Q: What sequence folds into this?
């Protein structure tokens, strides 16, 4: 059997892009500095038996995975290296969940009969998608929703075509784990799946309906009971909202739906400048980092030592761009030189292009249209929440950060995945857009870099903790040689990572002891694992060599 060379190349490209983005995130973003880490590390403290209750509202499952993974695979740390070990562990768990989601998407796309090459291009697209990158580097359960969503949909679609009740049980397990993670996910999932899959439930016979209802009630009750007894809070008690911070004790005005200042959107894409505009925040934060908490975070290596490849100069005469060979930059001349946030501007343009293509494709009438509509469900839930103030007020008018796209990122990625696979499958030439897309994303992230001694020392320190230290060192040495004609001297012996972060961990040594055992969370981990393995093994033909053969 002859193997398709294009497929082989794309498979290799996918593997390299997956490895590259994993290492890029590890080296350039310190997950301990992720948004709200100071609120949620308390889960680790609770599971390490340092405190009696979290006092938070989110479910345990994601943090339970993180706690056990750290205990099992991160022994040998000392107090000065604890946070770096934790950073590595967080990203490793997130990466495994991300890969789990990619496998689910592969199965799902194959079920809808998309070509293998189109699927591989889509997975490469997702590897570099900013919202998927965000989910992989933060200490929050959004990545769990991403991981389980394609398996949930695959199970429902399999039940719809086969009517095998076991697939409905699998779907129920994934659904319960997901909705127990946080209140916003609960609301989004209930609305989406009632609208687009509720018909399945009401088509069940009486025995099946009663069975699935009882199973759902029992599963959710047991898991929520364990979470509530551990947290002292439930899903709707938003400790991140007005109950914790009085600055969030507001409702958003209806004008937030349509207010937009086009000039300021381009001229001043600065955080909190557009807190009154849902459209502006969405455009600036989907492919960019409007709130400066990811690659534009001052403490992140993503944001440091950026090399300007484009210069803007004022000129009284009209003239075309020039290439500065000394600095390897392109110079553009403007009659009125104003501040231009180039990387944020590129992110804005990419968002505009994406949403234009997105809305143009909403008119399709096939059964997959519901996946494209998923982000609109997420947006509706968020907007309803902040405008109505239900269940509690949770809007800060001076910041507008409740509108972050990452809060419905799982639905956005779902839509982006189905949109891209459709386009890649429809026209082969669309696949060539991947190259400029990747280059632009890397530019937004802060590349290329100016490599000086301080920057090298910072990279050396964090790279010494990487499981791929030697490989990374070779790549970094090559980059440094190209830039400075110097060799990148790297020791893979763990060294101290300089950090100004300070958290009130009770005792680091407690993390060498087994975490608290949570029976129902452990049981659902077992249920979920068995369900995924069964689905995977029952559908191995979708991964067969025939999928990669030459046509």
A:
């Amino acid at each position: 059997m002859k193997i398709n060379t294009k497929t082989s190349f794309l498979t290799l490209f996918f593997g390299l892009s997956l490895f590259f983005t994993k290492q890029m995130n590890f080296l350039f973003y310190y997950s301990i500095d992720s948004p709200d880490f100071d609120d949620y590390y308390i889960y680790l403290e609770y599971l390490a038996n340092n405190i009696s209750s979290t006092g938070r509202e989110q479910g345990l499952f994601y943090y339970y995975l993180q706690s056990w993974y750290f205990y099992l695979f991160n022994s040998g740390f000392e107090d000065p290296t604890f946070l770096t070990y934790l950073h590595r562990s967080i990203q490793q768990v997130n990466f495994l969940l991300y890969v789990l989601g990619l496998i689910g998407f592969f199965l799902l796309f194959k079920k809808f009969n998309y070509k293998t090459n189109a699927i591989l291009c889509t997975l490469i697209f997702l590897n570099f998608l900013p919202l998927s990158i965000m989910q992989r580097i933060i200490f929050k359960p959004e990545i769990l929703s991403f991981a389980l969503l394609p398996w949930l949909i695959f199970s429902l679609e399999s039940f719809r075509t086969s009517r095998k009740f076991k697939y409905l049980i699998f779907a129920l397990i994934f659904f319960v784990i997901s909705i127990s993670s946080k209140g916003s996910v609960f609301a989004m999932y209930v609305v989406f799946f009632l609208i687009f899959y509720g018909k399945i439930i009401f088509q069940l016979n009486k025995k099946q309906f009663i069975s699935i209802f009882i199973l759902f009630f029992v599963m959710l009750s047991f898991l929520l009971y364990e979470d509530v007894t551990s947290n002292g809070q439930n899903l709707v008690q938003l400790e991140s909202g007005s109950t914790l911070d009085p600055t969030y004790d507001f409702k958003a005005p209806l004008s937030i739906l349509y207010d937009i200042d086009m000039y300021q959107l381009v001229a001043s894409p600065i955080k909190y400048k557009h807190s009154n505009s849902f459209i502006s925040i969405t455009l600036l934060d989907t492919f960019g980092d409007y709130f400066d908490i990811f690659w534009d975070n001052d403490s992140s290596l993503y944001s440091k030592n950026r090399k300007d490849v484009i210069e803007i100069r004022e000129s009284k005469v009209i003239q075309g761009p020039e290439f500065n060979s000394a600095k390897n930059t392109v110079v553009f001349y403007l009659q009125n030189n104003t501040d231009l946030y180039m990387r944020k501007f590129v992110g804005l343009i990419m968002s505009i292009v994406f949403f234009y293509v997105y809305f143009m494709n909403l008119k399709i009438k096939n059964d997959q249209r519901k996946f494209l509509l998923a982000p609109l469900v997420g947006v509706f839930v968020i907007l309803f929440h902040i405008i109505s103030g239900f269940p509690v007020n949770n809007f800060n008018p001076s910041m507008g950060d409740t509108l972050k796209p990452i809060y419905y990122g799982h639905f956005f990625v779902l839509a982006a995945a189905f949109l891209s696979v459709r386009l890649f499958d429809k026209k082969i030439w669309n696949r060539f857009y991947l190259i400029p897309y990747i280059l632009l994303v890397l530019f937004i992230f802060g590349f290329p870099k100016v490599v000086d001694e301080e920057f090298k020392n910072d990279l050396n320190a964090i790279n010494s903790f990487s499981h791929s230290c030697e490989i990374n060192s070779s790549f970094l040495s090559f980059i440094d040689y190209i830039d400075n004609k110097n060799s990148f001297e790297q020791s893979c012996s763990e060294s101290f990572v300089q950090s100004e972060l300070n958290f009130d961990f009770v005792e680091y040594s407690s993390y060498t002891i087994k975490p608290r055992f949570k029976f129902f969370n452990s049981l659902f981990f077992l249920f979920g694992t068995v369900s995924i393995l069964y689905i995977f093994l029952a559908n191995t033909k979708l991964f067969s060599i025939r999928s990669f053969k030459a046509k």
